[in-house]
What does this fold into?
Amino acid sequence: MSAGPAPGPGPRAAARPGHSRRALLAGSVGNFIEWYEFGVYGYFATVVAARFFTPEGGGEAEGLVKTYASFALAFFFRPVGAALFGRLGDRIGRRPVLILVIVLMTGATTLIGVLPTYDAVGALAPWLLTLLRVVQGLSAGGEFGGAVSVMTESAPPGRRGLYGAWQSFTVALGLLGGAGAAALLATVLSEGQLAEWGWRVPFLLTLPLGLGALWLRLRLDETPSFRAERERPAARPPGRGTARAIALGAARIMGWSAAGYTFLVVLPSYLQSSLDATFRQALVATVLANLGFALAILPAGLLSDRVGRRPVMLAGACLVVVLALPLLDLLQDPGAATAAKGAAVFAAGAVVGLMAGPGPAMLAEMFPTNVRYTGLGLSYALSNAVFSGCAGLIVTETVERTGNVDVPAYYAAATCAVSALALLGGGGRRDREEPSCG
It folds into this structure.
């Protein structure tokens, strides 16, 4: 396929007035749950390491590395989920696949909250946890492609960037929700209570959230673009053009993936293990970073509807390249004011938001309707598998081996530099021209 505009959906594909709002809500809520759980797992990484991956006599650093390895494994199953659920979603519809995905995601996350620990069942504990992480990875791989397809295909004219940005915004809300839950528990419980049973509470809260999401998706109509696509003659199966678009899409968002997880999820464990911050201090820093991220996303998506996706994303990638090391140096400076450090982590989140706002719509516009669920889902899943899922493992292991506490800045800057080059090249269109998402 070419990178040019996909054919428009035509008059029959026009969304009914209430459909756009329902699609936005039903698509967003699954993303919230997915990233709430992934955030909670990241924020409680040190606790999970102690309860599941550190037998008596084991080292703390070794347990943390194993925890992040389990974290990374779930991300590597995302492309499998994106391919499996994506093909189903492109063939039978977005709605039924999104219903299946939310059931799997909710069940796996809730079960983590009741798992026996290493002290109770020995070596079986980390294997059970890893199995549930695999199920989460598969379901998360099917979530993004379907949710973004639903939101962008149902968006009113000229608002695709803003509607797609809600996917990223609910990611930010999920991470903030996870950080808020962790911070609240760390405040009201003792360290012993938190390690013994308090860490389970955020995982168990996923059950009522998931039931609410399931109810919303059961009431969701199929998207106008997919209904129109089914009335057209059968399209050719995806080929090399789709594969090239997937690779380009993954390269364009790799900086978003890497910098986002480095600044928004890995930060708490990094601050504790490398800079000797307390658990509460690390969580406060993470809340500020995620707040900056959340506040930048919707304005960035709206701006992309006016000036194009790539200019806004390029600005975010270049800012990370320039600012990553100075921001980290400020955090490491014991003489720096607390307010300055808070502003630094807030700014780090905000520049990631510039990439995350237009990103979903940019990916959706790279693929026609008949391969959109698969194409944008695989682009996102591959990028996240390599550059988000491995962020904690890469940063923790490299800092441990080299003693260089600047590793997170180098990692974020390098990946954003590659994204900037990918955004500057390819596509064959003027930046302001965005194809129909039909």
